Amino acid sequence: MQMKKAMAISMIAAAISASAVTPVFAQTAAAKQSVQINTSSFLVNANPVSIRTVVDGGVTLASVRDMINAIGATLHINSDRTVVVKFGDHTLKFKHASKSITVNGTATPISHPVKEVAYSTFIEPAAFIEALGGSYENNAISTVELLDGAEHAVWVNASQLIVSNSAGEGREDYLVNAATGKYELLLTSEGASELVLSPDGTSVAYSDANGAVFTIDLATKQSKQVSTDNSIKNELQWSNDGASLFFLQGDKSSVIAKVTLADGKVSKVLEDKVDYKANLEVSADGTQFAFYVFKQPKVTADSNQDVELDDVAIDATGTEPQIYFYNAKAADNKPAQLTKDTTDKVFLQLSADGSKVSYVSVSNDEASLGQLVTIDNTGKASTPAFADKDVYQLVQGGSKLYLLTADGSSTNAIYEIDSETGASKLVQTVSDSTSELIVSGSANFAALIDGQLAVWTNGNWKNITN
Q1: Are 305 and 311 in contact (CB under 8 A)?
Q2: Which CATH number is 38-142 given?
Q3: Which residue, of 181, 297, 304, 340, is most buried by count of CB atoms within 10 Å of its CB?
Q4: Which residues of the chain have pLDDT under 70?
């Protein structure tokens, strides 16, 4: 009896003990679960990723483990429960409920304390990512190191651009991801021409300082020499079928020629003994051409004076660029001069069918405005437009023309022009620090803004270079 009584007393004591402890445990568990864990969509280096989040005191916090897994960082928890995160040259340390994080040994305050929910650590994502050297905005995380500078850019496709920068005595060309800014070196050169993109977007071509022509496969990054001809080749332009390259030949750009990629053979298209051609434009069928011709200024000097005195007279009368059109199928086989006025002419564009050219006319008067002009290939029908705006740039994008213009005292504007009808519409207003517009054939937009290359994505300009 006594043994049964003792066992009963022990069971009662255990029950009392359990009844005293269980409510406390339940309250703790309930407190931990009072903050609901959700799953949110983030963009991590332009890739969609699901990351657990909680809302604490109106502030959204994100899972530390989910974020480090997404960016490729490492996580370690010390015996004193200090969380240690390492990413590149950055080491972060913090504890639960902490109101600061240590970044490479230096304590940095954060606006909301670290929180533990269901044995997982949550932290304000902007403070966390920026402490690791990345950037954070509207659930978009970027940890890619960006290219310094962008002097020239061209779209390859909707996801890549070629960006070129000067480097010492030469140039460096990079392939840059349009979404993340991640880049890789494509070519280092000295004395090479600009890279020109093939019509199918799979390769680029250039000529080196010796006149040899090369192509680079953009998928494999492999370079191939396609011609050993050593004549000077300026302003390479692809034929529409990708089988040949047109160019201005010679040190005075006197000849329009082409090189066939299959055999490297060079042939002349136009040799009219006229020097200083520039801005070569080629129609889609490869038979019609537009270009500038520059005349050199007349220089006279007193033969009785010592040449070291630089006592010379320079007469620049009549040296303004004039536009010429050449149809290789025409019976007379002679270029036609389309313009004869004294304005400067920039950003020459030939329509795909060769029927007309467009350009920006700029008067020597400093107070004058840049003006869009379209003229047919006979030179008779000239149509000026945008006379009330200062046109800074004209660029072709597929079948459309695009203008960058002044727009008020502190903004610029981008306009789209239908090549067939001439009808125009405002695309968007941009900062007046926008200096160059880059448009792809499928109307992807990029721009140089404050010296940084930015792409238009999801209704915003996003920098992809520093």
Answers
A1: yes
A2: 3.30.457.10
A3: 181
A4: 1-34, 301-312
CA-CA distance, 200 to 203, in Å (whole number)? Answer: 8
Q: 244: closest CA among 231, 230, 229, 226?
A: 226
Give the integer Cα–Cα distance in Å for 394 and 289.
18
- Sequence-ordered list of residues with C-beta below 8 angstroms from that of 145, at least 6 positions apart, any chain: none
Kindly state the tokens that stand for 108.
């940095």
Q: Name the residue type at position 391.
A: V
At a CB cut-off of 8 Å and minimum separation 6, what does 299 contact? Answer: 312, 313, 314, 315
Strand 391-397, strand 266-271: pairing: unpaired
Closest CA to 162 of 170, 172, 395: 172
DSSP secondary structure, 230-295, as one string: -S-EEEEEE-TTSSEEEEEETTTT-EEEEEETTT--EEEEEE-S---EEEEEE-TTSSEEEEEE-P
Question: Looking at this protein, which amino acid is placed at residue 169?
Answer: E
The sign of the CA dihedral 228, 229, 230, 234 is negative
Nearest to 375 by CA among 441, 322, 333: 322
pLDDT reported for residue 379: 92
Give CA 41 to chain center in angstroms.
Answer: 26
Residue type, 292: Y
- What lies within 8 Å, CB to CB, of 96 at 6+ separation is 81, 83, 114, 115, 116, 121
Predicted confidence at residue 301, as pLDDT, reads 67
Strand 38-44 to 140-142 pairing: parallel
pLDDT at site 458: 84
Q: What is the Cα–Cα distance from 37 to 68, expressed in whole angstroms?
A: 18
Which residues have a Cβ under 8 Å from the Cβ of 191 and sit 6 or more positions away? 170, 208, 209
Reading the block at residue 148, the tokens are 């310094």
Per-residue pLDDT tens over the stretch 67-123:
999 999 999 999 999 999 999 999 999 999 999 999 999 999 999 999 999 999 999
Phi/psi-derived region of residue 430, left when phi > 0, alpha when psi is between -120 and 50, beta in every other case: beta
Q: Concatenated DSSP letters for 333-395? A: ---EE----SSEEEEEEE-TTSSEEEEEEE-SSTT---EEEEEETTS--EEEE-TTS-EEEEE
pLDDT in tens, 120-155: 999 999 999 999 999 999 999 999 999 999 999 999
**DSSP H or E segment with residue 23:** helix 2-33
Residue type, 182: K
Residue tagged 């239908």 (tokens): 418
Helix extents (H) in 84-224: 125-131
Amino acid 427 reads: V
Query: Whole-model pTM?
Result: 0.81
Positions of E strands within 110-232? 115-117, 120-123, 135-137, 140-142, 152-157, 160-167, 170-177, 183-189, 196-197, 203-207, 213-217, 223-227
